[in-house]
Amino acid sequence: MSDKQKRDRITLDITDLRERIETARSEPLWKELSLSRKIRNLLQTYLEQLEKERQQEEQRNNQPDNS
């Protein structure tokens, strides 16, 4: 494993989050995913949502004011 790969891995305490993560989605496939895959999926989904919101905000800010 390269140094970069080692730096990209973290230890995360999910003691109070595990149940919420496990039950976050109702699709049957969700139950089949490993916990780490579920966490990655939730993070990716949330990051995409934030990026979309930021993009929409930037578009609103760049529109000319018609008042």
List its traits.
extended; single chain; 67 residues; mainly alpha
Task: Please characterize this protein's 3D structure.
The chain has 4 helices and no strands. The protein has helices spanning 3-7, 18-22, 28-32, 35-62. By secondary structure, the protein is mainly α. The protein has one domain (3-62).
Encode the helix/strand succession as letters: HHHH
Supply the helix-strand structural class. Answer: mainly alpha
Percent in strands: under 5%
Distance between the termini: 58 Å
| Spans of at least 5 consecutive residues with low confidence | none
List the total number of helices.
4
Q: Could you report the average pLDDT, rounded to the nearest whole number?
A: 92
Keywords: Coiled coil
Coiled coil: 7-67
Secondary structure blueprint with pairings:
Elements: H1 3-7, H2 18-22, H3 28-32, H4 35-62
Coiled coil: 7-67
Keywords: Coiled coil
Nutshell version of this structure?
The chain has about 70 residues and is mainly alpha-helical.
